[in-house]
Write a structure and sequence with these properties.
Elements lengths: L8 E5 L4 H12 L3 E6 L2 H13 L3 E6 L7 H12 L5 E4 L15 H27 L5 E5 L12 H21 L6 E6 L6 H6 L11 H14 L5 E4 L3
Parallel strand pairs: 1-2, 1-4, 2-3, 4-5, 5-6, 6-7
Helix pairs in contact: 1-2, 1-7, 3-4, 4-5
């Protein structure tokens, strides 16, 4: 498929549904070959088929990012086929249970931090060399407003996202002067996802925006680029 991202490679995590799936479709529609990762193979296959049906190209890589060596295996497999990585969308994350801080379960908190922070650090480390070989790599992290504005009962998730933002921002600062890599953080705002439905079970899904709105913005950022340390929130 031709387009502004033709001959570019993108990796999208959490790509089996929601924002990740919509982002994969948007990037593929603009010409990128998209590597889709998530735990749910069936969901990835559905997204891959949708991309193929639209004339795009994609590769699925079902895996659990919290499993030891899974990320290293992914990076090795991608590196065997492609020289450079142009777009990395760090979208995968887990909500955990909403609870008052004194009631946070230590084991569950560790699980949330493993995916939302440790796995993100591992992804950055694993793909760093491929990102450096791109002429203008973009790493876009999907965050939440609770990372910057604490909210009652959202302490565990908010803390994990705050740590993720710091991690990605630090990496961006480290590479800005010595490479073409630029990192940015996107807060999607209220969006119709399975995670939001779990957090707000009584909410009318039609009252919040479709993931495609967020995906279109991510695709635009991947094409137009942005300055180091970019942050934005999508209202509505």
């Amino acid at each position: 498929m031709s387009g502004p991202l033709a001959d570019k490679l993108a990796v999208v995590t959490g790509a089996s549904r929601g924002i990740g799936a919509a982002t994969a479709l948007a990037l593929a529609a603009r010409g990128a070959h998209v590597v889709l990762t998530a735990r749910t193979a069936k969901g990835l296959e559905d997204v891959e088929q949708a991309i193929f049906d639209a004339g795009g190209s994609a590769t699925i890589a079902p895996l659990d990012l919290t499993q030891t060596d899974a990320i290293a295996r992914l990076a090795t497999a991608v590196g065997e086929r492609w020289q450079a990585l142009d777009v990395l969308v760090l979208n995968a994350g887990t909500l955990g249970s909403l609870a008052a801080v004194p009631a946070i379960d230590a084991k569950e908190l560790a699980s949330v931090l493993t995916l939302n922070v440790s796995a993100q650090a591992a992804l950055i480390a694993a793909f760093d060399s491929m990102l450096r070989r791109s002429e203008g790599a973009r790493v876009i992290g999907v965050t939440s407003s609770v990372a910057r504005k604490p909210r009652a009962y959202w302490g565990a998730y908010g803390a994990s996202k705050a740590a993720f933002e710091t991690l990605l921002g630090a990496y961006g600062d480290e590479v800005a002067a010595i490479s073409s890599i630029r990192t940015g953080i996107l807060d999607p705002g209220s969006t119709r996802t399975a995670m939001r439905a779990r957090a707000y079970p009584g909410e009318d899904p039609s009252s919040v925006k479709d993931p495609a709105v967020v995906a279109e913005r991510i695709a635009t950022l991947a094409i137009d680029g942005f300055e180091a340390g970019h942050f934005e929130r999508i209202e509505g």
